[in-house]
Fold this sequence. Notes:
Layout: E1 15-18, H1 34-39, H2 41-47, E2 51-54, E3 58-59, E4 71-75, H3 82-94, E5 98-103, H4 113-120, E6 132-133, E7 154-157, E8 162-165, H5 180-196, E9 200-203, H6 243-256, E10 263-266, H7 272-275, E11 288-289, H8 293-296, H9 301-314, E12 322-324, H10 333-337, H11 339-351, E13 355-359, H12 379-383, H13 425-429, H14 435-448, H15 450-454, E14 456-463, E15 466-473, E16 476-483, E17 489-492, E18 497-502, E19 510-512, E20 515-518, E21 523-528, H16 536-539
Parallel strand pairs: 1-2, 1-13, 2-5, 5-9, 9-10, 10-11, 12-13
Antiparallel strand pairs: 3-4, 6-8, 7-8, 14-15, 15-16, 16-21, 17-20, 18-19, 18-21
Bound molecules: alpha-D-glucopyranose (GLC).
Amino acid sequence: MASSDDEEWWRRAVIYEIALISFQDSNGDGKGDLAGLLRRVDYLKWLGIDAVWLTPIYRSPRRDFGYDISDFCAIDPAFGTMEDFDQLLGTLHDAGLRLILDLVPNHTSDEHPWFRESSASRSNDKSDWYLWAEPGGDGGPPNNWLSRFGGSAWEWSESRQQYYYHSFLREQPDLNWRNSAVQAAMSTVMRFWLTKGVDGFRMDASAVLIKDAMLRDNPPNPDANDKMPPPQRFTPVFTDDRPEAMECIELMRKVLDEFPRRLLCGEVQGKADRIGHFYEAERPRLHLPLNFALLDAQWNALSLQAAIDTYFKALPDHAWPDWVIGGHDKQRVASRIGAAQARVLAMLLMTIRGTPFFYMGDELGKPRAPVPRERVDDPFERLVPGFGLGRDPERTPMRWDDGEAGGFTAGAPWLPMLDDPSCNMLRQQNEPRSMLQLYRQLIALRRRYPCLAEGEYEPVRARNGILAYRRSLGETRMLIGLNTADEPRRWNCGVRGSRLISTYLDRPAEPVDPSILLRANEGVVVLQADGRETDPSDVANVRG
Ligand code: GLC
């Protein structure tokens, strides 16, 4: 088991998202699997992360990247067996790493036995496990609700002569969370994995668990225009983020809390105005509602400062922050802000107060990889084409070395690998100033200085293109200066101290003056001289 028995280990943890299908193949079928991941545990340990979040590994027809589950308590044969899973969990724990699984409570696959039974007739044990409704007045769908993946969110069932609701694909019917039998069934699923020893869940689509009982039409979005994907042309007040959905989250949190030291993070909706609700109000909800503020902000010092301030201010007392810079649904950040600023972002992520989340390949600066039309896998792209919504470019396989298919597979990769073959793990491991080395050193620095993980945060007004902030814990004071400009900028950090690390990784730790000339796209961490541990030769050890 992981070394610390601290109940709130996730406050200090660095969490790494792995989409298993694209991580490491072990059997040449072109798809990553559990045995492949097992082979890479040494890499995870070397990198220094604390916990892995795995996207769904359950039995699934995989119409939506495994988020269409036909058995919540079985491993998909493409990924291996339950023995493989148990071995992986044991190996991760022995290495001091934790494992978080995706939990998808909102919907199942239409191939799930629950749905097969529910859709067979109007009178069976599970007839009320999904959202069934009579046709609307014109004989068509019951109302105007749209699926995220395009078209009506209602699908006709011949056997029941009724419609069922699906927030996402028609092959992903939504469960009826008002039904206590559904609540009990999902609690059983959670206990199954928690009893095995998994360290928590990332709850999928947690804001849409409850839909309006009166099935009222969603109003048109007043800001709608032709450039918006059709589902966004309505304001989803009756389908998304209903207050009652919070009760479902509370219920699942209670199940989680039956087990010590487990984490519940979750995909939530809304921006800063909503984030507080997903933490605990009177009753605990999520430990960490995932925060994408850094991905949504414009990439310049002033906008970043505004986004960061707004987020911190929106947190209720005692709520712990988190920061997500990538994921299987999000455009690769290195492509958006460029390779040079991706290094600055890495420093921001690892030095700001809150739990960092990043996505496999971000540590290599992996860009979006083009996927030709005929190889598109993501239904989003096929069903709502023309809006750039496809997520395949972020889901292409990891590259481990210069070998064929980047050492990912001995066979044909399930998605084409048209990204730069030189952007691979081994090359960057051998290159002392690579992005990978930067990630590793920043994670090590964070571990060495609890001030970076847990210290107080205080913004310094952004000026001259430089985003800056102070961190402090006990007598330790640190200043972080991040030059978001592509040219040198002077930073008056105002203190004497030691520069512990630069995003360039080209200088040893050394004393610096209160006025520092930051190079283009450079970020630095300065340890204030009157703080503790000022001996640069000592701090240089973090490079270990
Ligand atoms: C979540 C997942 C996304 C999936 C959707 C439907 O948003 O992150 O990948 O398509 O749920 O399950």
